[in-house]
Amino acid sequence: MTGTTVKDEGQVRPMATMPPRVPLLSMKQITKSFNAVEALVGVDFEVHAHEVVALVGDNGAGKSTLAKIVSGVLTPDSGIVEIDGEPVSITSPSAAHALGVATVFQDLALCDNLDVTANLFLGRELTRGGSGLKDGEMEQTTKRILQDLNSPIPSVKTELRALSAGQRQSVAIARTLIGNPRIVVLDEPTAALSVAQTAEVLTHIERLRELGLGVILISHNMVDVRAVSDRIEVLRHGRNNGSFDAGTASYESILAAITGATKYTQGGDRRYG
Ligand SMILES: Nc1ncnc2c1ncn2[C@@H]1O[C@H](COP(=O)(O)OP(=O)(O)O)[C@@H](O)[C@H]1O
Ligand SMILES: [Mg+2]
């Protein structure tokens, strides 16, 4: 096969006529209210394998609510969620895990008094059927995952309290890779980090894409978002308000969608920038 043709059911035809790929995750017309607060109203969202999609918007736009629906922490009032084109109900975090969705929430939920390996396997320890834990195996897996992420954490036996905020974020991201997920959701992973630590986390995100995962990156930081994502989806007041190609969209056009200076009209041209 050459670089410019693909084989499909015996047919060889140019790449340009390939059918659209089925998204890894597709959310259609998702609505979620908390009593009188409409957190999400008819939101559409998609992520493909090998793709980083940034979810941006002002405080209260609905970003974390959407992340919690993907993670099974919240269930939508209405709308359809599909994985590989098949409708799914993500009714709990364990259901999300079983469907290949892993999430790093803003609080990280790590244990300071435990080492890196123990944090990766927290609650999911590998046991030897009653005769203790498979420490060696867990350490090897931890080392491999940190290598996969290009993480420079010196030892997997280091207690979390000795790590920097950036290294802790690395551990939280590494933890998501236990169980070979296909979709990783990161809620504000760089919010509390220095410039150097942020660069490290962005490298991990690029590695997740190279490993073939679909990544949902929630962030306030337009520099980060434009550096690492393929596509930028804007939420405003719980509604889609723009979809941008991260490589070409201007900062001003993204900002205008976030602040509401430009409005996305359903059925209109969603791509501007
Ligand atoms: N558990 C909750 N109970 C009531 N209101 C909530 C709850 N979670 C979120 N909200 C409200 O939903 C809206 C969207 O919140 P959120 O998804 O956290 O926004 P973002 O992450 O974009 O800042 C906000 O108005 C917020 O106050
Ligand atoms: Mg949030």
UniProtKB/TrEMBL annotation:
Sequence ranges assigned to domain ABC transporter in this UniProt record: 25-262
GO molecular function per UniProt: ATP binding; ATP hydrolysis activity
Source species, domain of life: Bacteria
Alphabetized SUPFAM superfamilies for the sequence: P-loop containing nucleoside triphosphate hydrolases (SSF52540)
Name of the protein this chain belongs to: ABC transporter ATP-binding protein
InterPro entries attached to this UniProt entry: AAA+_ATPase, ABC_carbohydrate_import_ATPase, ABC_transporter-like_ATP-bd, P-loop_NTPase
Keywords, comma-separated and alphabetical: ATP-binding, Nucleotide-binding
Record CDD domains: ABC_Carb_Monos_I
Record's keyword annotation contains Plastid: no
